[in-house]
Amino acid sequence: METEERRKLFDQLLQLLDTFDEVCRKNGLHYMLLGGSLLGAVRHKGFIPWDDDLDVGLLREDYDKLLALPADTFKAPYFLQTPATDKGYFKSIIKLRKSDTTFIPYKDAVYDMNHGIFLDIFPLDAVPDDPAALKKELASLRLQAKLLLFVGRIDGHVGTEGLSAAKKVMYYALIPLKKLGLLSGKSIFDKINRICRRGAGKKTARTGLINFTFDNPRFLWDSEVFSGIADYPFEGRQYPGPADYDGYLKNAYGDYMKPVKQSSEHGTSVFDTETPYPEYIAAHREELHRRWLESRNK
């Protein structure tokens, strides 16, 4: 049953999606509903009732154009979050945040970064056809993702709490590189995008989320799946998605028309649609820290 609070969350998410849609249309960028959002559009004509987020994606060319837009393209309270725009942010995908709200997965709770309700934005990249080239590319991406996590700990004022002895050594080894300006969240994020961009413009058999899910076959599709875009009904509106929704959803979910209730990809989280995240964190700091420790032990 959809609760009143979840409906409020859905309303905020739709505001984020409408804002993103407006910017994309104004700048000639083509995006698509992905993941559970596309599944919700096809199966429910809106949100999956137990979901708590929205996912969109852009093919690499349009994704790069999005990153190149002027910094003031999204007006407050909206904020395009990347490791370049938010020093404490430690993930390789980008998010559009609504800064006058709160959404905090407990596993992220102690990082000093924007914690507003968000829209996930994924790049869709060409997957190398040569297995050796793919293996090399994925190894590079995994390394950069680990570095980004460590730098996020430094810039997000998390420190070494919860790290193993070996990881603490790695943490402290990176601090001098940061102080010398040789390493930053922005530089790692830029390198991740350079690695993924190697296949840009090439016709490969598969396209996928290689900067996020790496070689998970659920998120590597036949490139033809993304050869066309169609509009889908979603909460009384229309939003674009892959024209071959069946090819996308079968690969990602199997028998996708059979509902399987599961927890969000984000795990246990807290949200507040009416309180800006700095105020929420200030009032619940000890509780969020405890929840973060609990999430690490699961």
Explain what you see:
A hairpin with a 2-residue loop joins strand 9 and strand 10 (237-242). The chain has helices at residues 4-26, 35-43, 60-67, 131-155, 165-179, 185-196, 245-253, 277-296, and strands spanning 32-33, 55-59, 78-81, 94-98, 102-105, 117-127, 206-208, 220-222, 229-234, 237-242, 269-272. Helices cover 41% and strands 18% of the residues. The chain is globular, with a radius of gyration of 19 Å. It has one domain: Beta Polymerase, domain 2 (2-Layer Sandwich). Helix 4 packs across helix 5 and helix 4 packs antiparallel against helix 6. It is built from 8 helices and 11 strands. With 298 residues, the protein is α+β, with helices and mostly antiparallel strands. The strands form 3 sheets. Strands 1, 2, 3, 4, 6, 7 and 8 form a 7-stranded mixed beta sheet that branches. A two-stranded antiparallel sheet has the order 5-11. Strands 9-10 form a two-stranded antiparallel ribbon.
How are the SSEs ordered, and which strands pair?
Blueprint: H1 4-26, E1 32-33, H2 35-43, E2 55-59, H3 60-67, E3 78-81, E4 94-98, E5 102-105, E6 117-127, H4 131-155, H5 165-179, H6 185-196, E7 206-208, E8 220-222, E9 229-234, E10 237-242, H7 245-253, E11 269-272, H8 277-296
Parallel strand pairs: 2-6
Antiparallel strand pairs: 1-2, 3-4, 4-6, 5-11, 6-7, 7-8, 9-10
Helix pairs in contact: 4-5, 4-6
Low-confidence stretches: none
Distance between the termini: 27 Å
Biggest β-sheet, characterized? 7 strands, mixed
Name the shape in a single word.
globular
The helix/strand series, from N terminus to C terminus, equals HEHEHEEEEHHHEEEEHEH
| Architecture (CATH level 2) name | 2-Layer Sandwich
Kindly state the number of beta strands.
11
CATH class: Alpha Beta
Q: In angstroms, what is the radius of gyration? A: 19 Å
- The helix fraction, in percent, is 40-55%
Whole-number mean pLDDT: 95
Q: What is the name of the CATH topology? A: Beta Polymerase, domain 2
Q: Count the DSSP helices.
A: 8
